[in-house]
Amino acid sequence: MEQTDKYFLALSNLCINNPLFKAKLFEYFNFDIEKTFNAESEDLKNFYATNDGEISIPRDFLKKRDETDPDKIYEEFLNGAGALGVKYFTYNDEKYPKLLKNIPDFPLMLYYKGEFDGINIDRTVAFVGSRKASMNAKEALNGIISGFLGTDIVVVSGLAEGIDARSHKSALECGLKTIGVIGSGFKFTYPSSNKKLYTEIEQGGGVILSEYPYELPPMAHQFPQRNRIVVGMSYGTVVAEARMKSGAMISARLTLDFNRELMCMPGLISNPNTEGIYYLLKNGASMVTNAEDILEALNWEAETSAGAAFAPDVDGVEKELYEIISIEAQSMEDLSQKTSIPFDELMASLTSMELKGLIKQAGGNYFICKRN
């Protein structure tokens, strides 16, 4: 460890609900974490005056700081969370996303599980939306993300139910890397229904991040706070279903506050969850219906990985189907409309291709090419 890591770890246990104060104090001390941790009463008075009183100082900061032993905190981490596979990086580490440093209340450090191997931190896109997402939205989102098959695009979301979970799953099904940002310490898997998803990400799909100490349970106010990290480390945010008063709309506002690209996926106007979507579209958000729309909005040309160059040894009907599916995820109905293949033959060919490991079903009704 760096000699100063113990101060980052110690501060992560202080002022948990006031990241803005910690970030601004860190800036005040010219990003010197030891001086930040050891700030005295006079330092805080000058800090308050320098910021024209706009950054409040937690009433009990000095008292709790004096009760905190950085060496003890570090030892507890090593013998506790660290021994259970939790790692961390600080503001000073190369792993720290450079975009995240640009938000006002950046986290001083982040805990993580998983590996950064293969993650292009310069190709991050956030996907947010309703926890009670419609099947239509999930399928449409799956189709959009599958359009990134074979690229270095990284899907970022919050590991909640609904749109978040579908975003991570779609990324994994397409062989994309994904980053999940959680609103609790790693002792908790929330929601419990995502336990398998947590494991898949940790075991090669990407990384899970948290700014919270290991034993901090999930609490309501921590999820909006978590959203700033999802959005803050992403070049753009795609909103897929959102009521006017929702966490997704908070993320949309943060996207604009951080001067990032805001994009929305349209949906059924009869669905209450699209109320926020059409409000955002009317006020300048970009509309996205496929992966190309996202690349265009971000002015990107995504690099294709070596896996995308895979050419299967197929011919006839299977070759025709593979060429269509390799471009974008397709449903049975899509394939039936785009080809003149009889339904029975279509079913048999798709089954054969699945058995050969060329394609697989994703999101229930869609077929995508497996990454090779």
How many beta-strand segments?
12
Which consecutive residue ranges, at least 5 long each, have pLDDT under 50?
none
Strand order of the largest sheet: 1-2-6-5-4-3-7-8-9
The share of residues in extended strands comes to: 5-15%
Number of H/I helices: 16
Distance between the termini: 37 Å
Major sheet description: 9 strands, mixed
Fraction of helical residues: 40-55%
On the 0 to 100 scale, the average pLDDT is: 92
Structural class: alpha/beta
Shape: elongated
Order of helices and strands: HHHHHHEEEHEHEHEHEHEHEHHEHHEE
- What gyration radius follows from the Cα positions, in whole Å? 23 Å
Can you walk through the features of this model?
This protein is of the alpha/beta class. The protein contains 16 helices and twelve strands. It has helices spanning 5-12, 19-28, 33-37, 41-50, 61-66, 70-79, 135-146, 163-173, 195-205, 222-232, 247-257, 275-282, 291-298, 316-325, 332-338, 343-355, and strands at 87-90, 109-114, 124-129, 154-157, 177-181, 206-210, 236-240, 261-265, 286-287, 330-331, 359-362, 366-369. The strands form two sheets. It has a nine-stranded mixed sheet, sandwiched between helices.
